[in-house]
Amino acid sequence: MLRHVRNSRFGVRLPAVLLLVGGALGELTSACCAQSEQALSIGSRRELFVDRYLVESLEGARFQLHHPRPAELAVERDQPWEQRMYNGISVIKDGGRYLLYYSALNRLAVAVSSDGIHWQKPDLGLVEWEGSRDNSLVGTVDGQLMIGADKPLPEIFLDRRPGIDPATRFKAFTLIEGSGVTKVIGWVSADGFAFRKIRQEPLIETSLYGAFDGFESLFWSAVEQRYVLYLRYAIRVRPPNPKDPNRRSVARMTSPDLLTWQDPQRMTFGDAGLLPPDHHYNNQTTPYFRAPHIYIALSSRLAQQRAALTRARAVAAGLRPARVDVADPLKWLIADCADTVMMTTRGGTHYDRLFQEAVVRPGPGANNWVSRSNYTLRGLHPTSPTEMSIYVNRHNGQHSSHVRRYVFRTDGLVSIHAPFAGGSLRTPPFTFSGNRLRINYATSAVGSLRVEVQNREGRPVEGLALADCDEIFGDEISRTVSWKSSARLSALSGQPIRLRFVMRDADLYSLRFSDD
Questions:
Q1: Do residues 75 and 394 lie in contact, with contact meaning Cβ atoms separated by under 8 Å?
Q2: Measured between alpha carbons, how far is 215 from 280 in angstroms, rounded to an integer?
Q3: Residue 163 and residue 416: Cα distance in Å, rounded?
Q4: Which of 32, 78, 249, 353 has its CA 20 to 30 A from that of 295?
Q5: Residues 273 and 351: beta-carbon distance below 8 Å
Q6: Quick one: pLDDT band at residue 37, thresholds 50, 70, 90?
Q7: Is the peptide bond before 240 cis (omega within 30 degrees of 0)?
Q8: pLDDT band at 162 (very low <50, low <70, confident <90, very high)
Q9: Which of 48, 42, 167 is nearest to 408 (CA)?
């Protein structure tokens, strides 16, 4: 009988005899062990369990994907300048206001809110439509569209780089698409409404196949200290598939100043490598607002050629396509379906993919089982001390199209979940700074959670063992873990430790070390 040794960081079991065969294999094993003993450094950063970074082993517990609950309609098409196709693009939180950018007859419009819940469409007085400027259309400082209404919509971003000129806080991209080449024109604005060009020459020029054929994500990365851009491109599928010849994917570019950019670098997807298992229509990658070193991608997944509705079912359900620029609008509308999936990255060219399952499903109603519906707008924002919101396109391509708000618990995308029978989580070695440990957790009325502090080798630290930990149960965004002894976490600050969580009917969403 073979004894098995667990590589607990990845949950793989190998026969122990294999670890003892051959000098070369022995050297490799020693190198792997030495690498595993290198302690991570988390300082006082908040860490979420949206990837495997802080998980070495799980016993009886698992990663749990959470789905947001639908809330109220955020923005509907109810103004005369909002005709034909309509969908939301992004939501930006700018201090005490929220800006929701959306398409109105393929012109860029905006709604504003003070809480991310109640929205108004301001009369910006910028762009003329049918003889009036009383509308919410975004444009240039001289009252024109930033790009023709038959071109791809402008994309707006808030530049959070410290010390940025207030007159250039908002950035925008427009595209010039040529034969095999895409050029990106840059714009700036003080208020997010009226824009002027950065320069006449393009900021970016690329021949990457299918580049910028979707809504992109641009932000200043406080961790990387540079601008980061995630863009869509296409991969030609081999062997050729006439029904689905290209796979939409994601590439990454960076720049120190927005003016000079590195060449696109192609992202990889979990174990799938460069070719993702599904179409990523709009990657929607942004730094998480409570942990900006973690980038969350609420990516739009298109199920190409997967029709959920027949024409007869669509007609019976009363679907009314709003498109007038295709020969058969209903055929286009029901050709496929879509949803939203979650990926994460900590910079670099790799997305971690814990789940293939959708985080936002189409849900009930034929209106949502249509092409390019259920796409999440770019932006994940706090809307109360205990909740955060995303905004999702519903009823795409129809006269009833709208944006609905969806609500997560704060940090509540993914948890480590233990059932009633119990489970545990063990971290790899890491160093921290601070004198207390705070956790975001929830249990049932009979559930519980305890934490043990261990040394690098996995032995309990005296006074901070599992038996010393005060039982934790309840539901709190921030709870300080306490132990019965006089031992203090501050004595371990900067030293490699491990944590072991023992849980029962409980969820652990995040942790953070901090000072009083």
A1: no
A2: 11
A3: 39
A4: 32
A5: no
A6: low
A7: no
A8: very high
A9: 48
Spatial contact of 391 and 91, defined as CB atoms under 8 Å apart? yes
Q: Tell me the domain boundaries of the chain.
A: 1-36, 38-66+414-514, 69-409
SS3 23: helix
Residue 394 · residue 401 · CB < 8 Å: yes
Among the residue ranges 30-39, 226-235, 331-340, 390-399, the one predicted with the least confidence is 30-39
Q: What CATH architecture is 69-409?
A: 5 Propeller (2.115)
The amino acid at residue 289 is F
**pLDDT for residue 238:** 85
Asked if 145 and 107 touch (Cβ cutoff 8 Å), the reply is: yes
CA distances from 29 to 25, 33, 54 (A): 6, 6, 22
Closest by alpha carbon to 290, among 413, 161, 410?
410
Residue 308 pLDDT greater than 70, yes or no: yes
Phi, psi of 2 (to 5 degrees): -90, 130
Which residue's structure tokens are 């490799």?
28
- Please write the tens of the pLDDT for every residue from 82-114: 877 678 999 999 999 999 999 998 899 999 999
Nearest Cα to Cα of residue 89 among 72, 74, 109, 105:
109
476, with CB counted inside 10 A (0-12, 13-18, 19+), is middle
Contacts of residue 64, defined as CB under 8 A and 6 or more positions apart, other chains included, come to 414, 415, 416, 417, 507
Residue 112 amino acid letter: V
Q: Which CATH class is domain 38-66+414-514?
A: mainly beta
- For residues 468 and 484, the answer to whether their CB atoms sit within 8 Å is yes
How does pLDDT run across 243-272, given as a tens digit for each residue?
Answer: 788 999 999 999 999 999 999 999 999 899
